[in-house]
Inverse folding.
């Protein structure tokens, strides 16, 4: 299956936190969007691997994703090794997307930073025909970075106001992470102490400079190319 967009995250729920509205907006427009989790989040303080996989698929269904895969790399063990780089590169070649998303390169969680670097390197390697020659090379997709825990340099925003209810529905699938259910063996973490409310506030803040109720922000390593400045929306 060829995808239009492939979104990588270190753990299930990373992509939803950063860009669930953008995913929903593109799937509603008929584009094929895939999600790839690098790990099974086996080191999570709450929830089991099996439950997190179920939650991840539920969220993918809510967002209309065409496919969700898991590379089974070690949680809290993501490094720039040939094995890990090859696994991510193979996934890009498998789906040959036009656009790839990865976590922003600065974040409080080391796995998010490692995922960002692995994906960036893999996007480059995917086009090299002499790298892993048993798998056909693909043109380098566009690469954008989304925010999870920490905001950084925001190069562009996407208006996700109409999709925000879908984003919240997708996030609500991760009950093991964002809720403290009575009677369950749950410990307090940043995720179940008002985290979704902070995500909502962040997305409101990202949109306010363009008078957009809810927006998701992205960064890029390369400049945007503009044909005509008046071909887009007007600043107010």
């Amino acid at each position: 299956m060829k995808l239009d967009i492939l979104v990588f995250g270190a753990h299930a729920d990373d992509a939803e936190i950063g860009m669930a509205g953008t995913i929903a907006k593109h799937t509603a427009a008929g584009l094929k969007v895939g999600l790839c989790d690098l790990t099974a989040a086996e080191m999570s303080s709450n929830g089991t691997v099996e439950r997190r996989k179920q939650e991840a698929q539920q969220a993918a269904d809510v967002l209309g994703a065409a496919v969700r895969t898991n590379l089974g790399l070690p949680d809290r063990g993501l490094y720039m090794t040939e094995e890990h780089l090859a696994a991510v590169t193979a996934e890009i070649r498998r789906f040959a997307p036009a656009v790839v998303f990865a976590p922003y390169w600065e974040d409080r969680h080391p796995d998010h930073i490692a995922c960002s670097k692995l994906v960036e390197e893999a996007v480059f390697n995917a086009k090299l025909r002499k790298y892993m020659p048993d798998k056909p090379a693909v043109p380098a997709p566009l690469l954008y970075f989304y925010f999870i825990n920490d905001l950084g340099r925001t190069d562009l925003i996407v208006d996700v106001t109409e999709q925000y209810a879908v984003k919240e529905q997708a996030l609500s699938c991760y009950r093991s992470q964002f809720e403290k259910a009575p009677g369950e063996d749950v410990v307090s973490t940043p995720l179940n102490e008002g985290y979704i409310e902070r995500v909502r506030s962040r997305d409101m803040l990202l949109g306010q400079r363009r008078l957009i109720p809810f927006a998701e922000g992205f960064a890029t390593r390369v400049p945007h190319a503009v044909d005509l400045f008046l071909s887009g929306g007007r600043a107010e």
About this structure: Strands lie at 5-9, 33-39, 67-73, 99-103, 142-146, 156-159, 215-219.
